[in-house]
Amino acid sequence: MNIKAKKRFGQNFLKDESIKQKIIQAMPNDSLKIIEIGPGLGDLTKKLLEKDKDITAFEIDLELCDYLQDSLKSEINKGQLSLVCKDVLECWDDSLHSEDYHLIANLPYYVATNIILKALGDSKCRSMLVMIQKEVALKFSAKVGDKEFSSLGILASLVGESELLFDVGGECFDPPPKVTSSILRIEKTKDYICNELFKDEKEFESFKKFLKTAFVAPRKILAKNLQSRYDKKKIKEFFEKNNLSPTLRPHQLSVKEYHLLFQIIG
Ligand code: SAM
Predict the structure, then answer these.
(1) Are residues 257 and 143 in the same domain?
(2) Which ligand 1 atom is nearest residue 58's CA?
(3) What is the predicted pLDDT for the residue at 1?
(4) Backbone phi, psi, residue 89, to 5°
(5) What is the pLDDT of residues 210-265, one digit of tens each?
(6) How far away, in angstroms, is 88 Cα from ligand 1 center?
(7) pTM
(8) Does 62 share its domain with 170?
(9) To test the ligand 1 pocket, which listed residue (3, 60, 64) has its Cβ within 8 A of the most ligand atoms?
(10) What CATH number should be reported for the domain holding residue 129?
(11) What ranges make up the beta strands (E) of the chain?
């Protein structure tokens, strides 16, 4: 096999056996379907297949797809692995699959945030175990008061529990990425819609815009950030009524308080 990693598809192949094992050990222990995004050379896919998992894998690179179709022929033929040779984002409507699933992937970093946000909003996705850039993992797993706490942490917390499990150094990949990676786990317990969080997609979209405004200047005063788009009087009343300091910065308001504030001024 002589396949060169393609930068444009974010290809950094995981080579370290002990990290692959740690990922397998951290995966959910049930019989739900697994979706893998970017199987690459199939190293992680093979480990998942050995655990008798039923997998659908999306791979954008047609050269890798040819290679996988050949090297995993018997699993494909017996129906344990279904390989979709397409850009996963083009296949994602409301849900990526008709059955409930867990997402397990060493994600291409150029599109990782987008994929996680899609999966958070996908009611069929029950959990994620993904390798991403450490900086992004810190944002998704941050809690109120952490300096990394942002709209990504809020969106993740609204529907589940996120945790950064462990870091993975560049030397574990071929070719090695310039940044440190981390394994992020998100276990979903709710959905945005149909759980009384938001009444419909339109309201959820407004909430995302509201968060964008709240964090427009992340180190500045939250109330000031919000005043550019929302009613100043209502914002002031919210802070007073809830005994909150008017000088709070965006990372200091809790997820519950953000949701409440949006219900009042959004
Ligand atoms: N899973 C392999 C591993 O751990 O070694 C490869 C991981 S590599 C970081 C990312 C993989 O995602 C590559 O195989 C790449 O071709 C694939 N990929 C990139 N963009 C994609 C997209 N939009 N849809 C599906 N696959 C994509």
Answers:
(1) no
(2) 25
(3) 64
(4) -70, -25
(5) 999 999 999 999 999 999 999 999 999 999 999 999 999 999 999 999 999 999 99
(6) 10
(7) 0.96
(8) yes
(9) 60
(10) 3.40.50.150
(11) 13-14, 33-37, 55-58, 81-84, 101-106, 125-133, 160-168, 173-174, 181-188
